[in-house]
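User: Show me sequence and structure for the first protein, then do the same for the second.

Assistant: Starting with the first protein.
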Amino acid sequence: AKSCGECIQAGPNCGWCKKTDFLQEGEPTSARCDDLAALKSKGCPPDDIENPRGSQAIQPQQLVLKLRTGEPQTFSLKFKRAEDYPIDLYYLMDLSYSMKDDLENVKSLGTALMTEMEKITSDFRIGFGSFVEKTVMPYISTTPAKLRNPCTGDQNCTTPFSYRNVLNLTSEGNRFNELVGAQQISGNLDSPEGGFDAIMQVAVCGKQIGWRNVTRLLVFSTDAGFHFAGDGKLGGIVLPNDGRCHLENNLYAMSHYYDYPSIAHLVQKLSENNIQTIFAVTEEFQAVYKSLSSEVILENSKLPKGVTINYKSYCKNGVNGTGENGRKCSNISIGDEVKFEISVTANECPKKGQNETIKIKPLGFTEEVEINLQFICECQCQNEGEANSPDCHEGNGTFECGACRCNEGRIGRLCECSTDEVNSEDMDAYCRRENSTEICSNNGECICGQCVCKKRENTNEVYSGKYCECDNFNCDRSNGLICGGNGICKCRVCECYPNYTGSACDCSLDTSTCMASNGQICNGRGTCECGTCNCTDPKFQGPTCEMCQTCLGVCAEHKDCVQCKAFRKGEKKETCSQECSYFNMTLPDPLSHCKEKDVDDCWFYFTYSVNSNNEPIVHVVDTPECPTGPDIIPIVAGVVAGIVLIGLALLLIWKLLMIIHDRREFAKFEKEKMNAKWDTGENPIYKSAVTTVVNPKYEGK
């Protein structure tokens, strides 16, 4: 941002510092533009920060909004349906043959509508029209007989037509009832009807219909679907609907020439003429026409480029809507009041900065709110600028908002250079440090012999200095923070806050953290450096040099005196008052660093230290830890139980060994039995009583 105006257009949280000496050496003019908190932290007084805000001025039926880029202006609009409000209602009836069975219902509907509307308002007018279809093939039969009577059999039907305005808007209710009751069915060939042609003519033929500048209602009654743009090709009709009035003798004369209108075209014309449409259809086609119906209550005129508008509605019974639903409220009765919250935002300034006007009105009503939009594209201080100021190098610019806005052909912070001199090598020499070849330390550009330091992505990080050699982000760090969070980085050197020192401001000069419990710094046995004790006595340690857990000599040295003074026992019990009066004793001891045994084998704890007057002080735990005697019953029970368990274990082992031995013997027996060579069926010691002798000489003869 080279000027205050460009700055405030960058975003709603941007401000411009107009303090003359705000910039550091080497900083560009754009450094004057920053977040409001950042400008204050850099030392810009609040009174020198330009930060214009949007505003509102309310007048009857008119609102003036001053818009700053990115900052929405929100206002409330209330709507209340007035009693006895003038209304024009036009009743458009389908007279195609498919309506034959519904004709009586449609006739009675028109009469009932008029009766009910007269209860709502006394200033009521009603009109009537009818439609069938385009008078060309294939929508109707064009034979002479069918043109005279399109119905079959003995039925007497009226000649087909596209749209007829039967009755202009009038307050004569009886006339309306007569004409509605006298209507006859006509005929066509296809099911969809030409109702869109009729709606278009009703919308654009305001003079012929007799519309007043009041609430306008159109009741569209049919039992079939509709033809729309493109369907005319079936009848050789290719010219798009022109959206103009073509009524001749109250008949639509160009239905054979122009195609059906599109849905979007109809919506546009109905909106332009402020007409609300009510679809009275049979249940079969309710879903088809429901998609065309809209409950939009508020609408606005065309918005200027870069301007957006958002609606939020607060309707009856606690129903709220946002987005597109924020434009509408349903079921509003006479006397009901609903509220709309409207936000208007400018996302950019118009090129010429001229004012714009938009209008908001409830659809179907003539009342409207006019909103005049005024854009804040410049700062107030720019009106106080001094043209051709001597502060801008011999009048080569306008001094405004603390900076120079250069005339055409001049550049530089003070407009001291012409554009022809920018690339001169002589100028670059002024941007080099002594004995250096780098222009602006490679951290900026040389413009008109002066370094303009470049910006970093992080706006809190800044290059500065005559040669852009300084910055505020390359100082020493501690704990991940620049200057430890305890100082400011200036030209790569930390400037520490009070009570801090060191290259990274990480050394605290506060000695409270080094104070020992005896009131001495580091217990008199060390030095406090950067808030931490550096113990010079090797026997002591800890944050305040009070801990001496390894100082066995100290503990043993004072053991007997502590024992006699605290517990009245020990070797020095009899001479305690003479030998142990050199220190003061305190009970109990919060920090116990010495652990010693007394004559009863009990442990006692104490701490030995020196106060600020170098007087020894001993802190003692008042209850020693004495060993307790053994508990006999558990020991005896444990021994007995152990013996029993060992005996049982031995018996089990002996039994196991015997089982193994028996099994081995039995297996050995079985093996020997299998290896026996005699017949197991005879007794081996049995001898027979019969002896057989054979004569060797006997030959059997």
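Switching to the second protein now.
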Amino acid sequence: MDVKLDPSRDDLPLLANTGHILVKHYVLDLDVDFKSQIIEGSIVLFFEPGNRFKKQSSSIEETCQSESNEACKFRMPEPCHNPVTHTSTFSSKMGYDGFSVCGKGVKDTSGKDGNHDNWEQASGISSSKYCCDTGNHGSEDFLLVLDCCDLSVLKVEEVDVAAVPGIEKFARSPTLTVVSEELRNQIIRELVTLPADRWREQLDYYARCSQAPGCGELLFDTDTWSLQIRKTGTQAATDFPHAIRIRYRTKPQGRSVTWTSDQSGRPCVYTMGSPINNRALFPCQEPPVAMSTWQATVRAAASFVVLMSGENSAKPTQLHEGCSSWHYYVTMPMPASTFTIAVGSWAEMKPETCLSNDLATERSLSSSEADFRYVGVCGHMEYPCRFQNASATTQEIIPHRVFAPVCLKGACQETLLRLIPPCLSAAHSVLGTHPFSRLDVLIVPANFPSLGMASPHIIFLSQSTLTGMSHLCGTRLCHEIAHAWFGLAIGARDWTEEWLSEGFATHLEDVFWARAQQLAPREAQEQQELRACLRWRRLQDEVRNSPEEMQVLRPNKEETGCVSDSGSSVIKHGLNPEKAFMQVHYLKGYFLLRFLAKRLGDDTYFSFLRKFVHTFHGQLILSQDFLQMLLENIPEEKRLELSVENIFRDWLESSGIPQPLQRERGAAAACGLARRVSAEVAKWIRVNRRPRKRKRRETEEVFEKLLPDQLVWLLECLLEQKTLKPRTLQSLERTYHLPEQDAEPGK
């Protein structure tokens, strides 16, 4: 696949050459400065050559081209006069000068590309010597390409991991007695492939290696979307340094994080789900195939709390007066785009009284849940997996914490805190083992652009979910909890197949919420049918008011999942500003899964879904992985005309309303809850038509109490009227206490 990248369009380029070399682990060491609105520090990357590496990069031309089509010019590092020589005394803070450009202060004097443009002049070496030689591949150095944007990269160096005390046990070959590139790379190869039961030792050595001194600066340059690094004379990915340190700082205008104030007026910063993901927070490999682990140490003023994607519930360590350090880690490999951080004056919210169901329960499986546990080895790369942990498989409610500004304490205690345990328990009853061992929930600032966002071990919720009744908070919480399985533990191999995350979460939120409320089967079915009616209206509106090319769930068709030889690709429409407001992937994906569940029957479908989760957790999938396994599990008599090809044609690769859905909705009778809404709409239309002075004989309309979703539908229907008189609107507000109701559910 020959990918032609054009950053000026609305497609998002993924330039990292993951086909040649893969990041296996990141160690971040960062300082957060609210005064300058900059995050500064270092990141150490540990590599393993990819399966498709070559002696030299064959795709330099496509990945090493700046926006202005200039030749790639690499900065020649100045000799460093302040080397760090003792690992025992090294830290990113103490060794600050060792990471900055020698002779420079801390002020950012970089040019628009984020690099110090006087390096060539200071070194006295012409940059033309280091241009990307795309015409002579035989003598070309290997080029490491990382996704990077809006960062000031100060220095890149190889890490001397051989200097770490005790590391020699990873040097398996007795012939490698002299410290060399080969020895250092062999040590990293052994370290990144340690078995899962040695994860603590592995994390410890990652941390110790990240503190090791540098052993040579590397040439680097940046363009709009990437950081490019090379070592002179190294022509193969296998020979490229397997551990490098990048010293960098973010920019206040960087698009991966948002600097703002919380609801109490205090400063905070957080990752808000940017279309460019985390490349403006740290240089990384963005393609989802680059599954990695990470650990991070973050320092901030002692008044701030640092929350992050991490398996541990971190507590602050006081470094000196007024400064604290927080440390998090993950052992489950995931795409770098799932990394999340939030730093602010958050307070942990705790219930006023102990909730009876707020205990992590360990119990034996009932017969109806027996298929949660399967014998056999997991299909993912090796890591400490909860699906292989007997106690984890029965844990209905994982440990959880809630954080928010102090001013929202009452709302959190009244609504959110009591909903988390039943929602977690409901999710476990449907899908089985929680993929993650713990959960933090953060109420994010008012500028958060959606109702929620899920990341490993942490969920962001909008303050809008705390208003009104518990319905919106409960459904949104269930949606984000569902992403632990679909979107995180099981990810899309091609990000254009967003429906594999959002369609599943939308379908599962109804099922989780019904169980969390302990609804009777009939009542649950009625409420789910009502929500289907609402979503049907929204999907019709979406199709009428959006570009056809953005209504397709599998826009790359047969090229879905394909990348260039180097591993680079593009995310179609990834930068289109309209995409953030569209729900088509949520809605069409939801209706497809609902259609399939009806065809199989709920019991058969959810039994299959648990089997699918057990088979594919910890892995990346394409649409056909799910559909093929599903069809293999459908009895012949229920399969009828279903095939992967037909589903692709009707649901995933065409714009507009899928024909099977059109036929289904056309034949569907309105559910009882929907019929009651229609009756209420008729009453309000009569009220709206009445003159101000009414005849005395006319009786007052008596309105029924409505569920939150019924109220939303009522208001949508009334908005279709040509006019609504002011007194009708006032009467609606009084009747339904509109200021006290949930916000409109949206996505």
